[in-house]
Amino acid sequence: MKIIVDAMGGDNAPAAVVQGALEAHRACGADILLVGRAAEVLRALDGCGEKTLPAGVEIRDAAEVVEIADDPATAFKMKKDSSLTVGLTLLRDGAGDAFVSAGSTGALLAGATLVVRRIKGIRRAALGPSVPVLGGHVTLCDCGANAECTPEYLLQFAFLGSFYAKKVRGIPEPRVALLNIGAEDEKGDTLRHETFALLQEAGRQGRIRFIGNIEANDAVLGGADVVVCDGFAGNVMLKSVEGTARFLMKELKDAFLTNTKTKLAAGLVKDQLAELKRKADPAEVGGTPFLGISKPVIKAHGGSDANAIKNAILRAGEYARSGFIQEIEANIDYMRIKPQPEKI
Question: Could you tell me the pTM of the whole model?
Answer without folding.
Answer: 0.90
